[in-house]
Write a structure and sequence with these properties.
2 copies of one chain form a homodimer. By secondary structure, chain A is mostly helical. Chain A has 2 domains: about 55 residues, Arc Repressor Mutant, subunit A (Orthogonal Bundle); about 160 residues, Tetracycline Repressor, domain 2. Chain A is built from 8 helices and no strands. In chain A, α3 crosses α5, α4 packs parallel to α7 and α4 runs antiparallel to α8. Chains A and B meet through α6, α7 and α8 of A and α6, α7 and α8 of B. Chain A binds a DNA duplex (19 and 19 nucleotides) through α2.
DNA sequence: ACCTGAACACCGTTCAAGT
DNA sequence: ACCTGAACACCGTTCAAGT
């Protein structure tokens, strides 16, 4: 007969799932993905250790749900970065890479979760697969357009170019996550510029092949 | 007054440290780096859960010791691959990349451990830092030589080229660890060829800049 | 339908005590 | 010097029972 108080401990009636995702993200930010504990999330929300298992079958499913949210945001960021870009196909290609890297830099915890393939069930989430695929498709499309417009040599294998572009961008993002830049003599403040310069160099190299074509 | 039996359970007197490293590697191969448990390693060796802590101050130190061994082997593999290479500086550069990638493919557990920066204390191990640095230096040296010999345009920034090469190679290795190739339509059996083709494409692009120089 | 309480089989780590 | 045994504060997960 007593009405539940407006905001406080309203989790108990419907939004525990969302609250768990938020608590888990907070834990990931504080301790990294491995530090996410279902029990600790429950404790912070004032529910029993068993309560989360009504909403997620296991820890992996909770992590996967976080990855879904993250991949959605990455997809939107890359799309946005493409929408703003008014240049040619080569510049659109750069734009996809810069958008991806910028998001990875600004949301390291989210990016870590997407990358933690051992802690999420990527194949088990259609949304996750779709989001990741869309980002890849935008890269491949820009590359094909660049070749069609004569900005990159047409003889080069489109799939190989795409894989090179992806390996470079993913490599840069992971080098940051895995703390490689310090050993490369690049201070944290210089990382964004170094990433964009590397990306620009790759695009320059690709564009150089078109000039050879005309020679 | 009883002499210890020759081989069986000789860990108890001197080589428990090495036995722990071997048991931990076996666990890493079976369950991944996160699955390495100090207790389980001790159990498999028939010692108490506290025994390992005489040899490693904590789990992280055990993981770091494994990473030291791994980085040593990677360094040797890359060096070997360079020794066998009789071609020019550009071919030496490819060789470093191929050696790195081949090792990563053949020893995924070891490579995972080196990459698991959140589970090891890289800065705390001089040997680890040294091994990683040497591999980087071999890349940078081959690149500089290629520029000096006119095989890559001299105007290009050597540091930027090195970072691009590293990002590409590390990206490829991580894409395999993180199971990205399936989504790129590349079957496991085709991964080595795809990696080498991507590497070859990058070197080709770099070499194309030298031809432009001469034009 | 959603949550609690208690339980089970695990962890990493510490520390006094044994040889 | 090296290891044991017991303890502490944690995990993920299950399940009967409560509302």
């Amino acid at each position: 007969m007593v009405m539940p108080k407006p905001a406080a401990r309203s989790y108990h009636h419907g939004n525990l799932r969302q609250a768990l995702l938020e608590a888990a993200l907070e834990l990931a930010q504080q301790r990294g993905p491995e530090g996410v504990s279902v029990r600790e999330a429950a404790r912070r929300l004032g529910v029993s250790p068993a309560a989360p298992f009504r909403h997620f079958p296991n820890r992996r499913a909770l992590m996967t749900a976080m990855a879904e949210e993250a991949s959605e945001r990455l997809r939107i960021e890359v799309r946005k970065s493409l929408t703003r870009e008014k240049g040619n196909a080569l510049e659109r290609l750069s734009s996809v890479g810069r958008g991806y890297l910028q998001w990875a830099r600004r949301h390291p915890s989210h990016f870590r979760i997407i990358s933690a393939r051992d802690q999420i069930d990527i194949a088990g989430s259609a949304a996750l697969v779709r989001n990741v695929e869309e980002v890849r498709d935008l890269t491949v499309q820009a590359l094909r357009a660049a070749q069609a417009q004569g900005l990159i040599a047409a003889e080069l294998d489109a799939a190989a170019l795409a894989l090179l572009a992806r390996a470079t961008v993913y490599g840069l993002a992971r080098m940051q996550l895995d703390d490689h830049f310090g050993q490369w003599g690049i201070a944290p403040a210089a990382v964004p510029a170094a990433m964009n310069a590397t990306l620009a160099l790759l695009v320059t190299l690709m564009a150089a092949t078109a000039k050879l074509d005309r020679a």
